[in-house]
């Protein structure tokens, strides 16, 4: 690629495909530009061969780590200065991804909790909407605790009935269905708020395709949006625009 002196962004997508596409769409929508050339030069690698992250973490399938490392190395070889992962659960392997490349790898988990600390400093209990794989690895719980916050998650049965079914079920979003999945997710949001969550993290990149702040009774922190905001700042030196 022609060296323009600007930072080249790499996105590891394909986990699922809609989430990777949404990450790039948000990048375009939120980057402050006046002309086409102001946008961030980006390589989106939609690697749909990456095994399911949750299944691998729970011991129900092959690990996604080798494919993630290969994806990051491919992006680095093609000149990327910054890499982001368009899947929250894949952040279970972020330390190994960072060790495998010399370029900067941003963390969706770190950026989300940092945003909560800055924007909602009085919040002490934060609900987590995420895959069972993400919850089992305590990605958000550990980061919240490091920042002096308490994490709240759904009970195991409700997690399976609403979140995992809404994501992976026959009528879930990964199968291309929106409304049945949305209904389940809204119920889960209401449960977390009713049981003491003062703010909620959307900790799966496909969840924002199903609901937004208007649907949530407490402040909602979209992990993907938090990551994209920091990505834009590091790539351009400018604050991101408000995401519609």
Task: Give a concise summary.
The protein contains 10 helices and 8 strands.
Description:
- The chain has 244 residues and is α/β, with parallel strands linked by helices.
- Strand 3 (82-85), helix 4 and strand 4 (104-105) form a beta-alpha-beta unit.
- It starts with 8 loop residues before the first strand and ends in an 8-residue tail after the last helix.
- The chain has ten helices and eight strands.
- The chain has helices at residues 17-30, 53-57, 65-77, 94-100, 108-119, 132-137, 139-146, 156-168, 179-194, 223-236, and strands spanning 9-13, 42-46, 82-85, 104-105, 125-129, 150-152, 199-202, 220-222.
- 44% of the residues lie in helices and 13% in strands.
- The chain has two domains: 9-107 and 225-236, Rossmann fold (3-Layer(aba) Sandwich), CATH 3.40.50.1860; 109-224, Rossmann fold, CATH 3.40.50.1860.
- The mean pLDDT is 94.
- The strands form two sheets. Strands 2-1-3-4 form a four-stranded parallel β-sheet, sandwiched between helices. Strands 6-5-7-8 form a four-stranded parallel β-sheet, sandwiched between helices.
- Helix 8 runs antiparallel to helix 9.
SSE blueprint and pairings:
Elements: E1 9-13, H1 17-30, E2 42-46, H2 53-57, H3 65-77, E3 82-85, H4 94-100, E4 104-105, H5 108-119, E5 125-129, H6 132-137, H7 139-146, E6 150-152, H8 156-168, H9 179-194, E7 199-202, E8 220-222, H10 223-236
Parallel strand pairs: 1-2, 1-3, 3-4, 5-6, 5-7, 7-8
Helix pairs in contact: 1-10, 5-10, 8-9
